[in-house]
Each structure stands twice: as C-alpha cells, then as structure tokens.
Write a structure and sequence with these properties.
By secondary structure, the chain is mostly helical. It has 27 helices and 2 strands. Among the domains are: 265-344, 5' to 3' exonuclease, C-terminal subdomain (DNA polymerase, domain 1), CATH 1.10.150.20; 352-419, DNA polymerase, domain 1 (Orthogonal Bundle). It has helices at residues 19-29, 33-45, 49-58, 62-69, 76-88, 92-104, 109-122, 126-133, 144-156, 160-173, 178-190, 194-207, 212-224, 228-241, 246-259, 265-278, 289-297, 303-307, 311-315, 322-333, 341-344, 352-356, 361-364, 375-383, 389-393, 397-401, 408-419; strands at residues 5-6, 9-10. It has a two-stranded antiparallel ribbon.
C-alpha cells in the first residue's frame, strides 16, 4: 500500500494533519493514477471516518466523502471537508452551513471567509461573494489567497484585466501559490500573451512536475508554435503519471501526427493558381460588344461566374445567340475550363451540410460555446466569427487550420465534440 506521507504529513497517521498540511496533500494524492488509486482503496478501508472522508474527497468522490465525514467527530476539519464536498456536489446551501460550523469551531476566520466566497461564486451569487471578501481588504498587501479570490470574483464579473492584475499581485506576494500562478498563466493564455503564459506554466511545473493542467496547456502552446518536441515532452510527462489520461493520449497522438505531416506545396500552388484564374474579370478578354453587353446585364463579371452558368442559361437570355456562346466556350477551353463545371463539382452550400447531417434547427442554433471547447479553440472560432454550431459545421478543416495558432489538436478537439452530436465539419470534394 502506498503511504501518503510527504514532509512528515500523513493523512492516515495517528493525528489528522492541519488544514494547511491537508492543502499540501491534495495535489500529492492526485499526482499519479497509482497514488490516487491507492488513496481511494485505503480510504474505503480505513476505520477513522474523518481520514477516510478526506481521502475520498481528495480522490473526487464527494458523495462517498459526505457519508464518511458525517460520521466523524465534530471538529473544524470535518466541517471544512464537508463544505468542500457539498460545493463539489453543487449543494451550495449545505456547503455554506458547514463552513459556518467550521467558523464556530474556531477555524481561521479569513480562511473560512475565502471558502464561503468560493461557494457563493460557484453558486453564481457574486454579490454575496463580494461581501465575504469585503472585511479583508486590509490584507491586500499581505495575502496571496485574498488576491486569488478577488481575481476569481473579478473574472466571474467580466473584469478580466483587473482579475489578471490581482493574480499577478498574488504571485508577487507568494510565488509558490499554485492556484494563483495557474490562474495568471491561464489569463495570459486567454488574452494571447503566449510568452507570459509559457513562463508561468513552466514555473508551475518546476514547483509541481505532475501539474496536469499546466502540462497540457503548455503542450498546446508548443504545438501551435511548431515546437513538436517540447509539445510531445509535455504530453508524455502527463502520461508518465497518468497513463490513461484521455486528453493527454489525444494530444500525444495529434502531436506525433503533426511531426510527420507533409505539406503539399505543389498542390497549394495549383489551388492558388486556380483561384486567381476564377477571379479574372471578363473585361480582360476580347469579346464582341454583344457578348460583353449580355454578360454585363446577367451580372457575370468573372471567369468564376461563367463556371457557375450553363449553356442554357446563356442562350435563354435575349440577344444572346449561338455565335456568342461559341465565342465564350472558346475562351474557357483555352484555360481548360467549361461552362457549368462549378455546378457539377459544387461543394455543399452553407446550410446544406446541416440538412444532410439531419441536425435539428434547435441544435444548430445553439452557441458554439455550448461545446465547452478549450481556450485555444474558442479564440480561433472567435477570429473566424463562428457563433453557432451551424456556423461551425459550415467550416472546412482547411478553414480552421488556416486560422492563426489553430493546430491539429484543436481541430481534433472540435471534430470530437461535433461527433458527439452526430455532426461533422463541411467536406470539399
């Protein structure tokens, strides 16, 4: 059995660790699949309901944790643990009641207030969270935790720049405050300050080499930069401790694929040439006055317009005869083109993809944010003005990959999310 002891702290020792020590133990429990599994097994077997309940809580088993902690002797640690567990279960009123009980058991007043602020914020009651923080403004020059909580509240209020400033103050006051450091890194990442985000994520990893979220976010940043070796190293670091981590497995696979991805320069050049040909204006060709006037009245201005027009369309127009038709066909033939060919090769038009996929209008009208994508993917969709799921499925893979800092990992993330709804990106023939 794994003994969960670090710096003399043991969750299952003779004495229950202090609240500060428990905070240090939490990331240890989740540092690897092996350690978490061992903790879970021991928690379920341990006779002391307080230690067992805390162990279950650390392992993310909030419901089981509540059952054990309710059996424990009355103490501040018990009620703090229950406050956390009920918050995870989104039973916010119960969480607040337990935290009040912890305060009556002489738990640190400021710590309890910070916990209550977290619960209010999770419940969406931002005004109440503000009231919990208000008495501690005099700690603004000494407490990293205060600034972390202030930053989280400001984030929830949409005051993103002020939130970032508070996270920065928090890490200035306490460089080892991991939650503030991650919040600062994430805020920089979200705002496109990738250099700063990389610095802060790396700082976190130096403090805790098994910090999963920091490693995965770094992996995405490095992949976007084309630094596949560093990206791969980050993903492999997660898999070393969490061999079955689904996101790390996906990221590693995508990064390895990116390493060998071949860019077909000649094909891209051909596409570029074809695109330029289609944009050539009709006025560049020596046409008869009759042909020129007819095309103008039909709003046919480019070669591309002609490729979307059939012989019958032209001949049905008044004053457009066989002579003009042959004149135009000859011009197109000189470039290896013909009338109506764009209609024959036409890709699905916007909206047709959705119909073909049998999606409901209600689903298609949903915000793309409902897909709960990563920061990187959301930023890319914003740049592409993708607001709804319909907007998204009418994009091609090429359109997404053409967006700055949008890599294969983000593409596969979107494809995976869409597949859950039976949808896919638009495909070109």
């Amino acid at each position: 059995m794994v003994s969960l002891a670090i710096a003399g702290i043991d969750l299952f020792g003779k004495e229950i660790p202090s609240l500060d020590d428990l905070k240090k133990l939490w990331p240890l429990v989740n540092s690897s699949e092996r350690t978490r599994a061992a903790t879970l097994e021991k928690s379920r077997q341990h006779k002391d309901p307080l230690a067992a309940g805390l162990g279950l809580l650390f392992c993310g088993q909030a419901k089981e944790a509540v059952e054990k902690l309710e059996q424990a002797a009355d103490c501040a640690v018990k009620h703090i643990g229950l406050g956390h567990a009920y918050r995870q279960l989104r039973e916010f009123d119960k969480s607040l009641r337990e935290l009040d009980k912890a305060a009556r058991k002489n738990a640190d007043a400021m710590m309890t207030a910070m916990e209550k602020a977290s619960t209010h914020r999770a419940a969406g009651n931002l005004e109440a969270a503000e009231k919990e923080l208000a008495p501690y403004t005099n700690f603004e020059n000494v407490s990293a935790e205060y600034h972390f909580q202030r930053g989280k509240l400001l984030d929830a209020q949409g005051e993103y720049e002020k939130a970032l400033a508070n996270y920065q103050i928090a890490v200035d006051l306490d460089p080892s405050h991991a939650e503030s450091r991650f919040a600062l890194a994430y805020a920089c990442d979200l705002r496109g300050d990738e250099e700063a985000a990389i610095v802060h994520y790396n700082h976190l990893i130096k403090m805790n080499p098994t910090h999963v979220s920091a490693l995965l976010n770094l992996s995405v940043l490095y992949e976007d930069r084309g630094d596949y070796e560093k990206a791969s190293h980050c993903a492999k670091s997660v898999l070393r401790w969490h061999p079955n981590h689904p996101k790390a497995l996906l990221f590693f696979k995508d990064i390895e694929s990116s390493k060998v991805m071949i860019y077909d320069e000649e094909r891209e050049k051909r596409r570029d040439r074809q695109s330029k040909i289609l944009e050539i204006p009709i006025s560049d060709f020596e046409l008869s006055v009759r042909s020129r006037n007819c095309l103008k009245k039909m709003n046919i201005e480019t070669i591309g317009d002609l490729l979307r027009t059939t012989e019958s369309d032209l001949l049905s127009y008044k004053n457009f005869g066989e002579t003009s038709l042959q004149e135009i066909k000859k011009i197109l033939e000189s470039k290896g083109l013909r009338l109506g060919m764009a209609l024959e090769d036409k890709a699905a038009a916007p909206g047709e993809t959705a119909i073909a996929q049998g999606a409901s209008q209600e689903l298609l009208a949903k915000s793309a944010e409902d897909l709960e994508l990563s920061v990187r993917a959301r930023r890319a969709l914003t740049r592409l003005n993708v607001k709804t799921i319909l907007d998204l499925i009418n994009k091609t893979e090429a359109e997404l990959l053409g967006c700055k800092n949008f890599g294969v990992t983000s593409l596969n993330e979107i494809k995976d999310k869409l597949s859950q709804f039976g949808l896919s990106l638009r495909k070109l023939d």
